[in-house]
Give the backbone structure.
Amino acid sequence: MSIRFLCRVPMKEREMKKTSRWIRILFAATLLAGLASYVFLQHTLADERGVFNYFCEPFTGPWERVMPDGSRIPVEIPGSTEAEPGDDVMIETVIPPELAEYGTLCIRGARQDIRASIDGEEIYYFTTKDTRLLGTSSAALYLMIPIPADAVGKTLTVEYFSNSAYTGHFRSMFYGSQAGILIHVLFRLHGLEIVSGILLMIFSIIILIISTTLRIALKRLPPIFYLALCMFSGSLWILSNSPLQQIVMPNISATADLAFFALMCIAVPLMLYFDELQSGRYHLYYTIYNAISITEIWVTSLLYLFGLAEYTRTYAIMFLTLAIGILLILITIIRDKLKGFSREYAFLAIGYLGLSLCGIYEMTSYIRRDEFFNGAAMGVGFLFLLVMATGQTIRDAIQVEHDRTKARQANKMKAEFLANMSHEIRTPMNAILGINSIILRDTKEPETRENAENIESAGKSLLALVNDILDFSKIESGKITLLPVEYETASLVRDCRNLVSGRAESKGLALEFIVDDSLPVTLKGDVDRVRQIVTNLLTNAVKYTNEGSVTVRFVSDRDDAGDFRLNVSVKDTGIGIKPEDIEKIFGSFQRVDQSRNRSIEGTGLGLSIVHHLTRIMGGDIRVESVPEEGSTFFLSLPQEVVDPTPLRDRKSADTGVKKSVPEESFYAPKASLLVVDDVEMNLKVVTGLLRRSSIRVDTAASGQDCLDMICKEHYDIILLDHMMPEMDGVETFERMKTLPGNLNPDVPVIMLTANALAGSRERYLMAGFTDYLAKPFRYESLVKMLEQYLPPELIEQKPAEE
Ligand code: ADP
């Protein structure tokens, strides 16, 4: 209870740091005091080990070799004497008192059978002749020969029989208690080898399991799998060569054979590993080497299996192959170093250098029949490589994190750049299209009208392109948000139709809209996005159809859960899409069949945006198409039903072509409007567009001007630009709310914005703006906004012009 209570009360950060610092100091002092007293006691108290006998010392003789003719020559142990494979080598010594006292003589055979006798009476015989499956010599073992206590002064004879390259070689001998000899052999002589072998085996198995799991989960095998396989073979070699095998494994002969086999299996996975690290730059050489290496494993093993050549006789080939392998990787690393590629795996290159030095040392010590050839160097070499591989992994992880941060920053900069670009392009576009529409309205000259119409069409194309790029960047950064609103189904249909009817007409295409009259009157969804999707499909249908018709159907549908879906199909009689291209068209920047479409303008972004938007809305889209006959796009979007009354029951439901606002009918002579924008051209556009409506338009060139003016005049509506120097639109709006003497506290304020980037509209509405108007706006949308927010009594019927 009290702990919970403590957890719930957050301590001040400084206090926490202070207390945990004291705890750390206290604990470190306790630990040091404990260790120091332990070291002190070990040095001052008496040795209690007397109860155990761990005695073990080397036994060097003197030994004499008894030659077949009875002559004797002194021999050194460890050491060697001249003998041919197959010779029996007999040595003798007189048993000294210390040997009899401790009772055990330990001899290490080197692929030799060994017989020991005291005064001619056999006391020990070792051979694997009857228990091994393959080969003609016994495995190398530490043999414990019992020496009776009463044998002092008697002659001890040891005979070595072997038909291997080891004939005439004597390894070290020890005497002492059995426990003492065991500890000496396992810990002092072979400790490093056994520990490194076990560690390697554990690590390699862990890495093998993890990388196999990753292979299953991610369908990709990480390269470290090969390194683990190489280390596993290495550990198998080290352990099956070590004295541990004679304690753990039941059949020592088979384990001794395994050592040779494992040795040959080290190289191939190492090559595969480096091949991956070096991105296949030396793939051909590695492949040739691996083919040779695998052939060698088979040939030497089969020769051994059929009794034609023992592994001990083919080791020269094994070593040669290994040496070539070591050299091959070294050469590739040097080449990579010269070309600057080795930076990618610098740690591993160093690790490999360490391993190959250990490998060369190991090989030479084997060839020299070195007493201390025991695999320890190889074990250390592998562990070094493992440490370096871990270092490499950590470095790579840091690099990945670094790259990710950089990419995030770059993405942020890209988003900011797009926001700026959007503003920069839309602001002059607003002026161009606005002034152009004033010319269009005022001019009586046919040539000027035609030019202005061309400007309008090119301007609109440019704007559509900018919008597509912005939408695409929003989708890319996952910043697209939906803003569901209630909307009239009929006006959605009407808007879609208005947006393409002109284009279809100019191409001479029949445009047919078939609307299911059971559709609900009012729906809820992100109508702007629905309109964007449908018009995109419609624009494409018109764009890719040269003759015939475009048919659009709006149908009501229910999904499995009974929820409403708005189904729209767009059918054209155009050029169609080849079956192999159908999958591609929804991808980004994908324009298919370029040979036929070259003359048709497009970026390949439209359908990608449509596809993403549809998915975000939880809908789906598919296409059926026959080349040269036409295409049909099927769209299905879940929408909420607000008013289920079917369209047929609403007389007013008009889905025909109609301008939403008759161009010249807006008339509000008693209304007043304030427009605030730092760009003078934009002020002129608003003033010009509204001239015939007789509405009084006042202009302000900055946020401060606006604040001054609203204290002097009352307005019925205020249009406020967002991006302005010094005080921007949002700040101006915030100040307006608390401004003393403001004569317009409850007047609708519409944000004018060129910032069409992600989340902007939500931000404006949340900031308290009545609505927003995206630049460049058209006359229709401006008037629609005024009609919506001006007090209705101020909007009048326009008197007929003379
Ligand atoms: P674009 O800007 O090129 O029109 P979209 O993403 O809208 O890009 O379309 C991708 C491609 O799909 C187009 O380049 C065109 O080849 C093909 N396509 C789209 N709609 C149609 C259609 N109605 N008829 C034939 N081909 C079409």
